[in-house]
Design a protein that fits this description.
Number of strands: 0
Oligomer: single chain
Shape: flat
Helix content: over 70%
């Protein structure tokens, strides 16, 4: 198990670098668009995914409790991708966004216990 420590970190670090580059590259593309809600959810999902891979790559070196935050970011990524898909066809109401944030906080608390 210890033999896979460094290859996993390297893979997650490379994936994080690619995702951060995609995020910073896509920010300039989304600025001139009028309907901002789908793009906002896309950028949030991409940020959460890049953060998750960054935390996965740093967790074994710094602290294993970072895995809880990384898993929460990874799960939140999928919720925000779902909101992005929904926002493409209809506006997402504010209470759905709040409900997802509260659910993710509950997930992080229960995952940590």
């Amino acid at each position: 198990m210890a033999a896979m420590k460094y290859p996993n970190e390297i893979f997650c670090f490379v994936a994080a670098l690619i995702l951060w580059g995609l995020l910073f590259g896509s920010i300039s593309v989304f600025r001139p668009i009028k309907n901002k809600q789908p793009e906002k959810f896309w950028l949030i999902a991409l940020t959460l995914n890049a953060s998750a891979f960054t935390l996965f790559s740093a967790a074994s070196t710094l602290s294993l409790t970072l895995l809880t935050l990384a898993n929460t970011c990874f799960i939140a990524n999928f919720f925000y991708l779902g909101l992005f898909c929904r926002a493409l066809s209809m506006p997402v109401k504010k209470y759905i966004h709040i409900l997802i944030v509260v659910g993710l906080l509950a997930f992080a608390v229960f995952l940590n216990t």
